[in-house]
Amino acid sequence: MVKRTYSIDVILQALSDPTRRQVIERLGIGPASVSDLASPFSMAMPSFMQHLEILESSQLIYTEKVGRVRICYLNQNPFSVMDSWLQAQKSLWETRLNQLDSFLLKTKGKKI
Q1: What is the pLDDT of residues 11-65, one digit of tens each?
Q2: 63, 71 in Cβ contact below 8 A?
Q3: Residues contacting 61, CB < 8 A, separation 6+
Q4: How far does CA 3 lie from the centroid of its chain?
Q5: pTM value?
Q6: Which of 26, 36, 84 lies closest to 60 in space, CA to CA?
Q7: Contacts of 104 (CB under 8 A, 6+ apart)
Q8: Where are the alpha helices (DSSP H) in the chain?
């Protein structure tokens, strides 16, 4: 099995567009065809396909051709990488805020 790595920068860049985030939200419900994914958006199919290409190149989605229909699937692995990164950032800032809180309590009423 090939171990894949996911770039947080690429993932965040792909998710920076509201159309792509809506596609991800829709795929969270389940797989969908390209035409079903494109139907809520008022843009030409080539423009919509560019969004899908960005999502696919960032590995947030993958597609499979079934007959004449291309089906899109959500790849949850990059999201677990993002979740780990966000949890590490949250932990770091909680530690810093707790240290600041302790410092402020110790120095309360004292001139520094």
Answers
A1: 999 999 999 999 999 999 999 999 999 999 999 999 999 999 999 999 999 999 9
A2: yes
A3: 23, 24, 27, 52, 55, 72, 73, 74, 75
A4: 19
A5: 0.79
A6: 26
A7: none
A8: 8-14, 18-27, 34-38, 45-57, 77-106
